[in-house]
Amino acid sequence: MIYLDHAATTPVPRAVADAMYAVLAEQFGNPSAQYPLGLEMKHQVSAWRRTVAQAAGCGEKELFFTSCGTEGDNWAIQAALWQNRRLGRHIVTTAVEHSAVLECCRWMERQGCEVTYLQPDGRGNITAAQVLDVVRPDTAVVSVMMVNNELGNIYPIADIARGLAQRNPRTLLHTDAVQGFLKVPFAFRTLGADFVTLSAHKIGGPKGIGALCIGPRVRSPRPLLPGGGQEQGLRSGTEATAQIAGFARAVELRTADLPAVLERMAALRAYAAEQLSAIPDVQILGGGAPHILALSLAGWPSQNIVNDLGGQGICISAGSACHQGRPSHVVAALKLPKRVSGGTIRLSFGPETTRADIDACAEALRRHHDTRMPML
Questions:
Q1: Largest alpha-carbon pair distance within the chain?
Q2: Residue 322 annotated as catalytic
């Protein structure tokens, strides 16, 4: 199998699985228990939290474990609205956010909030000026992702943060950094965002664990889950210790030689863009992050491409959902010609990806182009 869908999820290294198994089988204590087994696990959770926090560039007390990126996104937006409930109920976001943000914003609209959805340009870019131009005195929160999960575009979070400090200092800033964490260098303490969402399974960790970084401007955040008082009283529930252990071990593995890993992935992306651009009717879309390459085989439906390559053991994803012929909300926002939007696919890379993987994918796409009839 050739796996080129790391933006969807990543393989879990044996070292991560071993760390999780040790917790499940041997170090299974409840961190809230007061006997040695529990106290040792409490100490371990603190150490694992420190590992993830250091990689995110935040303090240990600023990092709260969650079940996933979706939970972190929802918590951040609702916590910001709660803090600024007397300021206003206006939200600024983009039309190309992950559904975890968009669906939360749509839900808040049904609760009486007003949402401004910013449209990207034809390449998928969003500028800081676009964001700041629509910020109002009653804007409670701005939520802009760090890296677009379908296109790979990097958005100017630090510039937005600096602009907000001038435009409306009370407006809180959230960024979904699920595709940016350990892919695009940043440090929470200098980024300027008030909330940053992370997820483990995009970096070689297990599914079912993520984190939310919450900055000092967020005063007494509203608890996500009231209960036994875990996560400083903000997200109660017995800690998912095995998943937390896996998250921390994955972070350790990814940060061991991170600059070289990112340089290698960026080189692979450039090589893939070069090889695939040589195929007739291929157009490269968006770009910026080292691990995501979006492109269109214009005229050939993306789901047919995904199915064909999947049958050959090559895993890629469709940039368009192809539900009743409609493109994804991200691709639709680019306002591309139908034959281009309908043929959009995404390749995404990890540390394990090789040039041979790219070559095999390029050859499979050439065969698809040469042997299948266009339908768009």
A1: 68
A2: yes
